[in-house]
Amino acid sequence: MQTLKVGLISILIMCCFFAHGQARTIECKNKSNVFTYGEKVDYTIYYNWGAMWVAAGSVTFRVDSTAINSKPFFKISGVGQTFKKYDWLYKVRDNYEVIAEVAPFRPIRFKRDVKEGSNEIYEDYVFNHKSGKVITLRKPDKKSQLQKDTVNFSKCAFDVLSMIYHARNIDYSGLKVNDVIPITIFLDNEEHSSYIRFLGREELEVKGMGVFRTIKFKPLLIEGTIFNAGEDMTVWVTDDADKIPLLIDTPILVGSIKARVNGIEGKNLQLKSKIRDLE
User: Fold this and answer.
1) How far apart are CA 26 and CA 200, in angstroms?
2) Is residue 183 classed as helix, strand or coil in its secondary structure?
3) CA distance 279 to 275
């Protein structure tokens, strides 16, 4: 298996879906979606080196609508970047986009354009669910030429961006501590089988947002350009129908990172997990 190359935005996309424990079977075709057009969630990325936490970048996820042959589709994007004053240290400009069917929710076309320091990755995947094949066009680094391929994929495989929205559709009721939900992600021209470990529920105070009831996960990460392999990362998600990731805390190869939500928009969002505002 190739080493996954992940960066700033991938902390928020990939981290929620890797763990270890007793597996629980999950239906991969959801009949309805907890999200809808117009949703937007913003995060600030904080970097710690030594005793100081610095707001170093931002990530924004959006759910928009598009149409193909008059049929409605989701157009979901994830954009991550370092703040300009830190570009000299490690410049990040990450763009992810997926066109997905509404029902059942599944990816049709995925694009990934990543520039992180000296690393550059470009991927364009077209999923054919009838044939079970993905047509891939990719450039794994800035020195390579574009490479075209056709790869098999399983019916429950998702790209990294559609996976985070698929996971929000899953019913997490009845989970016990250390239960695991299996996940299959198609990235870097191949499938990766993983799962998330459920750690339980707890209250979480989010600066500027309030106090929330949350679901807590402990991912088992695949080693990449900024992560060590292991279960050092912790993820907190709203314990309600919306399942919005609120906080992600993880060490990286040098220092550590927190991704904290700072804005949530969406006409259908209810966030019933919110207990109270901060005083």
Assistant:
1) 18
2) strand
3) 12
Q: Which amino acid is at 194?
A: S
With beta carbons less than 8 A apart as the criterion, state whether 42 and 59 touch.
yes
E strands in the chain: 22-23, 40-49, 52-68, 71-82, 92-101, 106-116, 119-128, 133-139, 147-152, 157-158, 179-187, 190-206, 210-219, 234-238, 245-251, 256-265, 274-276
Per DSSP, 241 falls in state S
Find out whether 219 and 236 touch, Cβ atoms under 8 Å.
no
CA distance 156 to 99: 16
pLDDT in tens, 18-40: 333 333 445 566 668 889 999 99
Tens of pLDDT, residues 213-230: 999 987 655 444 344 444
Name the 3-class secondary structure at 89: helix
